[in-house]
Amino acid sequence: MKDKRSIYSFLKEFKRKYPFTISWRLYQNSKVIEQHINSDEKVIYAFAAQKNDNPFDIVTTCVVAITNKRILIGQKRVLFGYFYYSITPDMFNDLSIQMGLLWGKVCIDTVKEEIYLSNIQKEALIEIETQISELMMEEKKKYEYKNTKRGNN
Fold it and tell me: Pairing state of beta strands 61-67 and 71-76?
């Protein structure tokens, strides 16, 4: 990984700014993502959330890292193994935010599924939306340019 700053340091900063976000085992979850980062990728932003649609389920913590190329989601299982998801700009469809009284939810709509990230402190939602939207808008332009260029040949 080229970036000298670890994913865990991004998470500590996020938790310092937004301490009411419900998340556990951040170090173990961040290690899942660090295993899958390519050498030409740079982490731009990272945050923690619960990977589910249920605000009462607080044991499914995952770490979301936004790199200069894609969105990575890692979740370490308690005993053995892990879950890992990668969202590339060509698979990304839409992003929606739902805000409640204390916590909010981010829904990332992809070609294959909808990924729900819940129990995020509501003040963090705007920052998360901005980071994801800026990356995807910038990267989608590159994909559109490649497809346009390929179509003209």
Answer: antiparallel
The answer to whether the CB of 43 falls within 8 A of the CB of 3 is yes
Pairing state between β 71-76 and 92-99: unpaired
* Across 2-26, average pLDDT: 89
CA 109 and chain centroid, separation? 12
pTM of the model: 0.86
Contact 141, 93 (CB under 8 A): no
- Which residue is it, tokens 């700014």? 17
Q: Which contiguous run of DSSP H or E holds residue 104?
A: strand 103-110
**pLDDT at residue 2 in the model:** 44
Question: Over the stretch 44-61, which tens digit does the pLDDT of each residue have?
Answer: 999 999 999 988 888 899
Q: Which two tokens stand for residue 62?
A: 């995952």
The phi, psi pair for 17, rounded to 5°, reads -75, -35
